[in-house]
Amino acid sequence: MAPGSWLVFLCVFLPLGGAVTPPFMNYIRPPPKQDEYDFYWHVGYWETMFEYDEERDAGRPVQLTGLNRFGRRETNRDDPNNCGNLTPLTAEESRTVVVADGFHRKLIAVNRTLPGPTIVVWKNAQVAVHVTNKLIQEGISIHWHGITQHNTPWMDGVGGVSQCPINPGESFTYRFNATEGGTHWWHAHLGTFRTDGLYGALIVLEEEPRLPAFSREFIVLLHDWQREESLDIALRVNWEASRFSYGYDNNSQCYYNKRQHDGTEIAPIPFVSGLINGKGRRYYNDGLESENQNVPLETFEVHSGVNYRFRVISAAMSYAFRVSIDRHELTMIATDGNRIKDEKAESFIINTGERFDFYISTKNKPVQNYWLRAETLEDTDIYGTAVRPHSAKAILHYQGAPVDSDPATTRRPCDASNDCTVVNCPFENYPPGSYKTCMNVHELRSALNEDAPRRESKWEEHFINFHFSGNELNGAQRSSVNGHRFIPPRSPPT
Ligand SMILES: [Cu+2]
């Protein structure tokens, strides 16, 4: 059978629904060691807060009726003005709903999941991901973030650069060796689909010396989810129109950036919802009103007296997050897939694309629910008035603590007797008196290569100016390198 017809064969017989990919699991189940791992992905449109009928390939909107309770919308021909009746979903049906922030929105998804399927393989195995583009009008490509693609640069997945996009209806097999161990991720690398849902974890397992035994290894994917599709936002930013993020027809409210404590302008677009593993609560009106409370948050189930590893990946569109777990010290053990010498921290800051691994001990902790927080770095508005940061939250649930109940915990105070170490600040330090001390990334040390390369006597210096620029009045945040903007090529160079 020719390779092409083999792909067609697969397309016809692969079921589309939950049979291909179970709902997202937030912990790693190590696979058996194999030379090759195969994954079958269908990239398609999907909707948040929708129920999928696999038999009829149809969907129906659902709504939240209480904390973690969903109802299916019903219609009645005899009463066309009444279509708000909800019939409850079973727990099993509820598990297949892509919740996001509990509101309806189109997304682009692999096998109808958000985040997309987790890839877990052993180091140096061959990974084969068979991707079929089920979209009707958009090309796609998938990038394997953290894999260097030695000898396989054409598998890097940058549409228009390392390959032609996979067109609607086409299939393409990515095949590469998992040469880098650690916490990585995959995401769309053409246009704006990454932040519309085309992302997931890519974990390359290896034997790791000098680590305690972990009862479980959790995955934490962070995302600043928007109510609009990413293309609308990207166009607005490119047109220097992000001041009008509350709507081109909204004459009563315009959006202005926030600042970090050091004055750096951040937050070019309003924060809407912070998702952890595809679930989070929406802030109304940029956080001035209360969040919606019925969205079930991601929950990490733990037992007392053991260690848990967390592999944190930022899939954010534009916000950096400061990550912490209330009343738990973090032991940082890896960044971007590279093991580092252990560093104790109260929190760490993670930017888009970065990964941090840490572990916690659950010894001698009161049995209850604790917040895992991912807070933005928003400190003031442009006038210097203090603002509260937004956050994505998840629940660390000790077995025996109440189920379906938000934690009541607070983060530990940073004070004179107990300073907080914050790893990976994008500024030199916090202000004096805040009792927060930055450990910047250049202060981290490799756990494996004790002798880092030293500077040679002959060296050259290059300045590369990464910049967000534009018209101050309208709040442009267009990115450039040495004053040049990236314009995607129409095809890979030949
Ligand atoms: Cu990437």
From TrEMBL:
Domain Plastocyanin-like: residue ranges: 96-207, 255-401
GO BP term (any one): iron ion transport
One of the record's GO molecular function terms: oxidoreductase activity
Top-level division of the source organism's lineage: Eukaryota
Region (Disordered): 474-494
GO cellular component: plasma membrane
Keywords for the protein's UniProt record, in alphabetical order: Copper, Metal-binding, Oxidoreductase, Signal
Name of this chain's protein: Laccase-1-like
Lineage: Eukaryota, Metazoa, Chordata, Cephalochordata, Leptocardii
Gene of this entry: LOC109467337
